[in-house]
Task: structure prediction
Amino acid sequence: MKIVESPGTHNTTVAPLIAGNPTYHDVTQKISGVIEARTPKLWYVAISISGAFALMFLVMLTILFLKGVGIWGLQIPVGWGFDITNFVFWVGIGHAGTLISAILFLLRQRWRTSINRFAEAMTIFAIICAGIWPAIHVGRPWFLYYVFPVPNQMSVWPNFRSPLLWDFFAVGTYFTCSLLFWYLGMVPDLATIRNRAKSKIKKIVYGIFSLGWRGGNRQWRHYEVAYLLLAGISTPLVLSVHSVVSTDFSVSVLPGWHSTIFPPYFVAGAIFSGFAMVLTLALIARKVFGLENYITMTHLDRMNKIILVTGMMVAYSYVIEFFIAWYSGNMYERFAFWNRAFGPYAWAFWIMAFCNVVVPQIFWSKKLRTSIPVMFVASLLINVGMWFERYVIIVTSLSRDFLPSSWQYFKPTIYDLGMLAGSFGLFLTMFLLFIRFLPMVAMSEVKAVLPQSDPHHSEALELETGTVKG
Amino acid sequence: MRMAKDKLHNKVILAEFESSGAILQAACELRDAGYTHFDCHSPFPIHGMNDAMGIKRSSLSVLVGSFALLALGGAFYMQYWMSSVDYRLVISGKPFNSFQAYTPVVFALTVLTAAIVSFVAVLGLSKLPRFNHPTFSSERFARFSDDAFFVSVESDDAKFDEVKTRSFLVSIGAQNIEVLE
Result:
C-alpha cells in the first residue's frame, strides 16, 4: 500500500503562509462571510460614487457616438491622445494579475493563493476598461468588425502585417484566457457558496455557475491539470500582450516611438503599474474586510519588492532611451527626447520620472516597505506616474512631427478628462460588484496550503512530538 | 431506455472521513478491495489521490496539445490564404506572403484555442455541468466544500452491495454512513 511521497512535507522553520493558524471551517466562514453578511453601508456609498462615474462614461460614450471623436482634444498630428494612453494604461494594469495567477503558480510560489483571485479579477476588469478605447477611437465604431477575419461585403481581408491588427488578436486572446482561468478557478468556491446558500435565488444562481461541482477526485484530477495548463498558457501572455501593444508604436517611423527596446520596456512597465494597482486594491480590501491574516505583511512585502525590481527596469529603460537618442546621432531622435524632457510637456515628463523612478526607491528600506500608509501612497503615485508615462510617449512624440508648421500643444477637453474618470468609475464598479457577490480569496487554494491539508500531516506531527517511534 | 433510467437512479453510499490522511488511506483500501466506481470528495485536491484511487493521470494535456497544434497550422494557413491567395493586396511594397508578420496572430490563436479546449475538456471529462446527483440529497454532503471529506460508492460498481459495502466502509474508519438515491 504505497502512497506517493508528498513534496509538501512541512518545513516548520518558515512562517506559515496564512497567519492565525485557521481551520478549514475558519477559512470558509471568513471568506464566504464577506458575501453572506449584510451589505455594509460603505459599500453602497462607494458604488454610488463609482456607479455615477460609470454612468457619466456611458453618457459621454453616447455623445461620442453621436458627434464623433472631434469632441476630444485631438488635432493632427496628435491623432492619439487620451484614448490610446488610457488603453495602454489599462492593459498594463492587467499584467500583474496574470503574473500572480500564472507565473507565480508555475514557480510554486504558494503565497500567491490569497491574492490571486482578486488580482485576476482586476485583470479582467482592466482589460474590459482597456478594450473600450481602441474600439471607440476608430471614429466609426460600427466598422470595427473589419478587424475580424470574416468574409465581408467588400471581400477584403484584414492586413495581417499591421501591428494594430495583432493588437486586436493579442488583447482578445488575453481577455478570453484570463476570463476562463478566473472562472475555472472560482468553480469550487462558487460550489461552497451554493452549499451554504440560504435563499432560493442564491441557491439557483450560484448552483448554475458552480456547474454541479462535487469536489470529487474524479473532477479534481482534470481540474488540476486544466488549471496548470491555463497557467502555462497565460504565462507567455504576460510577456506577449504588452510586447504586441508596444509594436503599435515601435513599428512606426516616428522619433520617440521607433525603438527596439519597447517590448521589454512596456512589459516591465505593465507589471510595475499592475502591482501598484493590486497593492492599492489589496490594502483597501484587507482593511475593510479584516483580511489581515490572509493578505499578510509577507505578501505586501513581496509585492513591494517586485515593484522595486520592475521600477528599476523601467528606470533603466528611460535612461537607455535617452542614451540611444544621443548615441544614434539622429537629429530627429535627439530632438524628440530633448523636447520630451525640456519642451512644452516637461511637466508631464518630470511627474513621470518622479513617480516611477524616485518613488519606488523608498522600498529599499525594510521599514518603509512594511509600512501600510507609505506603500498605499506610493502605489497611488506609481499609478499616476505610469499613466503619465504613456501620455508622454504618445503625445510628446506626436505633437512635434517633421513639419514644424503643424506643431501645436495638445489640450484635453472635458470629454477626455471625463471619460478617463469614467473608465475608473467603471473599473471600480465592477470591482465592487465582484467583492460583494464573488469569493475574493480562493478558498480551496488557501485550504490546500494549510499545514493540515498534507495527507501526512498527522504522521509528521507524531514524529515531531515523538509519539511514534521510527 | 431502461439502462439510461437505471443510470440516473443510481444509489450511492456516502461515508465521511475525518481528515485528508484518513480519506487517502480509505481510497487505498477501497482500491485494494477491488472497488472502481467510487469517488473521494474533498474541499481541495489531495496530493497522491489518483494513485490511491487507482486512476490514471488526466489525459487532458494530450487533448489540449493536439488542438493547439491544429490551431497553429490553421492560423498560419488562414493568414497565408487570405493575404497571398484569395485577395492579394500590395501594402508598402511588401511580399504577399510576408510570413514573419504572421507570428503574433499565429501565437494568439494557438493560445486562444488551447485555453478554450482546456476549459471545455475539463467540463467534458469531469462530466459537468451536472445538476442532479444522489449525493446532493444529503444535507451533510454540503460540507464537502467546507471542511469534510467524503467517499461515495456508486451502485453500478461490480462490488457494490448495500450491506457489505457499508460494513466494509465502517471497518476502514468511516463515520456517518448514508445510503442515497
In short: Chain A touches chain B through 78 residues (CB under 8 Å). Residues 147 and 421 of chain A are 28 Å apart (CA to CA). The radius of gyration of chain A is 24 Å.
